[in-house]
Amino acid sequence: DLQAARAASDAASLAKSAFLANMSHEIRTPLNGVLGMAHLLRRSSLDVRQAGYLDMIDRSADHLLGLINDILELSKIEAGRIVLEEAPFTLDELLSGLLAQVGESARAKGLALGVDAGNLPAVVQGDMTRLSQALLNFLANAIKFTPRGSVSLRGRALDLGRDDCLLRFEVTDTGIGLSKEEQSRLFLPFEQADNSTSRRYGGTGLGLAISKRIAELMGGEVGVDSAPGLGSTFW
Q1: What distance in Å separates the CA atoms of residue 175 and residue 232, rounded to the nearest whole number?
Q2: What end-to-end distance do the CA atoms of the chain give, in Å?
């Protein structure tokens, strides 16, 4: 009975993931059409009011597209359809690329943005894109939930072997912080610190769940050290 129940649960999970993947694709295709038409319309003659309307269309469509991409990504991971790449890359390139992606949003809030590569090896082999994706989620959240102060990205080599290595990356902020109870739910899909978070700050609670899955695919783990009003360190 237990085996049958587990098989049924696994089948339901796979069906759910397949459904989400298919629906995300069906929604994303026409949405890309909306974005494309908005881009073409922007090249025509518009008055100030029409340009403002177009800005609203762009922002809304970009937000929706990001949500759909997150849902699709999570469903692919849960269905076991993600295969990590094995290619050499430099960690300096990884870290500088991350800072370039979030630099403007940090400057817009007046936040200091720092990086410390520590004793990281110069070159490693793995999936640079997925690692960047996980760390970008940490950085974007840190900037979102930090009204003033700083956000820093740090890397350390904890164990360097002949054929593999254990690296620790962490993003530290001076933001609003989290209680122990809030921390316990953070890495679950669609969960956020509290019910008011999505209304005040936006987001769906998928980014941290995706980062957790990526770390686990690489043989690692994720966690957070935080206290209310004292900032957070996501690692």
Answers
A1: 7
A2: 40
**CA–CA separation, 80 and 15 (whole Å):** 12
- Residue in 179, 115, 102 with CA at minimum distance from that of residue 142: 102
What is the C-alpha to C-alpha distance for residues 161 and 149, in angstroms, rounded to an integer?
37
* Tens digit of each residue's pLDDT (9 = 90 or more) over 61-81: 887 877 777 777 777 777 677
Nearest partner of 70 among 208, 216, 229, judged by Cα: 208
Evaluate whether 99 touches 136 at the Cβ level (below 8 Å). Answer: no
Nearest one of 62, 133, 145 to 101, comparing CA atoms = 133
Two tokens at 212?
């957790």
d(CA 103, CA 113): 7
User: How far lies 218's CA from each of 63, 64, 84, 145, 148, in Å?
Assistant: 29, 29, 8, 27, 33
Q: What pLDDT, in 10s, does the model give residues 153-191?
A: 999 999 988 888 999 999 999 999 998 888 888 888 765
For 111, 115, 147, 197, the CA distances from 140, given in Å and listed in that order, are 12, 15, 13, 15
